[in-house]
Structure formats: structure tokens, C-alpha cells
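Hi C.,

You asked whether I'd gotten around to modeling the 380-residue construct. I have! Everything is below, sequence then structure, no commentary in between.
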Amino acid sequence: MTTSTRGAGKAPAVLVLEDGRIFRGRAYGAVGATFGEAVFSTGMTGYQETLTDPSYHRQVVVMTAPHVGNTGVNDEDMESKKIWVSGYVVRDPARVPSSWRSRRTLDDELDAQGVVGISGIDTRALTRHLRERGAMRVGIFSGDAIQDDAALLARVQEAPEMKGADLSAEVATTEAYVVPAIGEKKFTVAAVDLGIKGMTPHRMAERGIEVHVLPATATVEDVYAVNPDGVFFSNGPGDPSTADHPVSVMQGVLERGTPLFGICFGNQILGRALGFGTFKLKYGHRGINQPVQDRTTGKVEVTAHNHGFAVDAPLDKVSDTPYGRAEVSHVCLNDNVVEGLQLLDKPAFSVQYHPEAAAGPHDAAYLFDRFVSLMEGQRA
């Protein structure tokens, strides 16, 4: 929810949290007003991929790294066709980018896409506030949008909450498209786009998979119209408790026994499809340095995260579901949040984090190979 004008310059800016705390700084990007959920990202790099990740739709991202914009903006690292964050918060924006790949400054890119931001505030204090009190609604106001503090706070408190938000259809493709396999085609995958990142079908294409990306509104019939060897459910924004349609489609896939893989929102969809609940985390996991243990191997991975909701499934036992036995396959070592699920009697699994890792470490890239192995096993 943004209103903006071009030309941020050095206009005054104000950040107002829904609990009344206020930070004052300077405009960064477009000048105007914007609203969303205040969340923080702990990544020290990869800001361009963060900005263009559709999972950040309707969120105001606070960067914990103090220096942002150092490498400018290029035309290669976009995860989608536009910036999706509703606002951006940085401490010390780079004055001049330094990278041979840079085509323009981050400030100019935010301005050109109408993204209202703020710089020059104590992002460490803001992050500590969100850690203690939880993610909450926020507004950024600059230039003529600035009013007295009470009026700004009232506007923030009138903004919609993330809990109960159904957003995946707002960011997903409206038309199906195909990402061809790189080299020899080995498999066909139907990918339900709930906010998919561009690197995800690319990682599958690298493994000889032709990916048919389908809208979030795709039906079971649409999925099987492409004659898939496997089905994928992507990441995406919003509250998984609202995602009744994707849940019903996934249940149709589980009934047919087609190999299934889900990432992030797709993990939450699998949780719901199996009969587990979901819940909102206090402040979520966002960044590229989160430790996760693969409980099937004991290996610990450093992983990329972007989620504010999680699956409520038991960590200490195998659960009976309508589709056979299921267990928690991955867990976050910081807080024991469920980071992955797998079925023991059908070829289906999911993870809450981002093995495509754009940006981020590549520790979890093997999960795409695991998906390939499921499809090979089904074919055999």
C-alpha cells in the first residue's frame, strides 16, 4: 500500500510502528507514504534478490546490515520482474556503488519503482524492538506525507494486518509459461506459482527438468494437463490459513501419488494438506544465515529463509495422516521451528527455507536432486 512521487533527494522521513514507537531519518527511494508489516532481514548481501522476492509482498524490510547499496543494481540478479517490498529501511546507504555489474544506484531503482524508504535511522534499535515485541504494522512517511505523529499512528493502525492475508494470487503469474530444460530434457514438472522466485525453475532446468509454471488459481486438472512427472508448490506471501485452494490441489496430487516438492509457502501448504495447523511466528526468519538440521542425515545446513508463518507438527514422533505416515525432516536449530516435512509412504516432501539460495549459501541444493530421485524412482 504505497503512494509516492519521484525524486527522494534528502527529504525528511518518519517511520511509525503500530505500537507508537517512531524513528526519524531521511527519505530513501521514492517520497510519499507506504504501509506494511515491519520485518528484518539478517543477510549481509543479496539485497537485490530480497527486494524482488514476491514473498516480501506487503512487507517493509529492515536491513540489519548497516551498509546497503554498495554494489548498486544490475539487470541479472532480479528474482522477478519488479520490486515487491512495500517499503525499505536502511541505516547507511552507499553514496556511490562500486561494481562492474552495476547499472544504476539502489536509491534510483527504488525511486523509479515507487518504493518508499527511509535511511539514517538506528536499524539496530529497530531490529531489537521487533525481536522483543514481534513483527507489526508500520508506515513510512516522507515529504508532504508527513503529518503530526498522532495522525500518522492512526493511519498505521488502520492498515491491514498480515495475519489472515490471502496474497499469493496477487503476485503469481496470470498465464502459464514454460522454462525449458537445460540440455537433455529428462522430466516435466508442473510448478504452481504462489510467488515463485526466478531461480527456482532455473535450478530445476539445470537438472534436465522442463518446468510448466502455472497460476495460483490452477486446478488439479490444469496440473495434470501437462502430464507431469512431478509437481512443485512454490514460496509466496501471506497467511497459509487462507490458502484453501492450493491445499485442495495439493491433496489431489497426494491422492494420485505423483512426486511432490514444496518450498516455503509450499511447505505450509503440505502441512495443511496433511492435517497439521499453521501459526504466525513472533518475528519470523529472514536472512541467508539460518542453521537447519536435516534430521534424516544429521547434517547441519546454513540456509536462506523468508517466512513469518510455520507448520505446527510434532517433532518427536511419526504422525498418521490421510496420505500415510509423515514426519518432520528438518528443524531450525535456533528455535526448533519445523523446517521440513516428508511422507514415508508416498513420494512427497517439502522444506520451509530456500534451497535455490538466491542470494544465499548452496548447502541445500541437494534437495532438487532429491526431487529428481523421487521422479526417477516413480518412473522405474
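If it helps when you're writing up: The mean pLDDT is 95.

Thanks,
B.
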